[in-house]
């Protein structure tokens, strides 16, 4: 007889299930036979109430379940009621919190949260409900009394909750244990051969660490298990071959975004809580970009993150005691940080603004995965000297107990009533922030994508030091879009970037510039319908918030039937993503829509934007993730056949689209694309021309850029840099 078939072996297998979270994670090995007692059995986890099944009353309980009637008449309709309890009282990082949700009629949801203290009886916990959300009239209760029945066997674990207070009769629910974790999540890790992925580290490998930090092998999976997630994943990072992907190992936004789309389209029927982490060597922006977080991929709102291991995150400080361990730790931290964003965790220093679940104070000194190591006093050395490789208690409260709808971004009803009144605005601001559209009137055609030119100026008489990518890092900024007659919304971009922090000096009156595509993001098309809109933003700079003046703009109604008809296909997520990421080789329906737009409405501004996106994808070869030959079956069996292939450029077609959009009507292009993006796209086009040996044509395109921006009174340093490029192209002409 096998050991696992003996009574002790059967008990051992049962214990394997209950120790999912009792101390470390499901990875923790159980003690060998014979089994030792007493057992460390935890009560934390998720419990559910099923109105169809009676649950035994906990031993010794004074509660008579049969005497406890429904809370209200709605509870009598049992098939349309479901309840969930999250109990957080022991195990790793216990918060002494209980929370719950009650769903009725598939749409109505009530959520509550209570802070707990031990009661007078064993396994009893009591506390006041301090946060409620939803239909509060049907849930007046103010206190909970919880009695837990523990057992080595999950099926015998129960929690009975008595709700009281608020002038209502007591309400009793007996919940059945469901899982030692609060939420399930699926992780997938893949990497290119030229990347150096890190999924686990030895916590004592680097000498700069807390004295109390346990020595262990810590994996990404274990980090999130300790946060309360039931993590499933393939055994290890699969290598996606680069053979056939061409010589250029750098990744563009379009290529990486397309890879995310291909990956999730292959697994469209998988569970919603899923995250793909893809390790690659380097982005085309170079070593200054360490990672990208792509949000809401596909119909099930999947998340994907790219980590670039040939970047600043693998550049150990000079003289470091163990550079290899420093690099591994930094790549590990970056992966956990970016993955934390997938659960809508804000940075530790930006929690006070936006759409907070529970009002939180900024904590720029937090030793959390969600804080930047170089942000704290003393820099990364001080950070890692006191970092326990965990999320903060406030973040754990969100991960374990936030209602599902708070995980979704976008709602900004608070702005309608309070604006930015809580922003830390100085009476004498250090900087001036402006959002501009560089046209006489802020009027836009129907379907015209809106790109803002952002300007941040030094408003003092002294030089000021800023992060050189401060306007590019939207984590530093809250952007509000309000349509007249509608609730305001927070703009939430399709992707977030983890940049190396580099400082620059702004002299008095000097400014830095950036563009912002604001029409579409995770919320869909925030600006689409005709009408009047107000846009306002707040830039968070340390202890000071810089609020821009409101920008009011108007979107015109459609001019004809063709515009109304095409709008149905234009205002889609795919088209929004193609415009944001400068093209796609995989979102074919969106590409077809932009082609049809260019054919039927060639003079429209929307068509000009579409031509730029189409051209960007055609003028260069592009890497593409090929998963067409993957077998069906478990996650662990499917990655070996994934490959990267090279899709060849169609330079002739792309060049024609670029020339028509950028050079045919340059003043119009500069106005609708924004000055910043017009400069960017002409540079990309001229580089593509030069790459084909067409340096004279590249010089002519650059000359058009110079003349256009000069007439639009762009600042002299920018014009001088354009003129220098023009001379360089013409000096090496045909």
UniProtKB/TrEMBL annotation:
Q: Which InterPro entries match?
A: MetalloPept_cat_dom_sf
Q: What is this protein called?
A: Uncharacterized protein
**Which domain of life does the UniProt lineage start with?**
Bacteria
The species this protein was found in:
Pseudoduganella namucuonensis
One annotated GO molecular function is: metallopeptidase activity
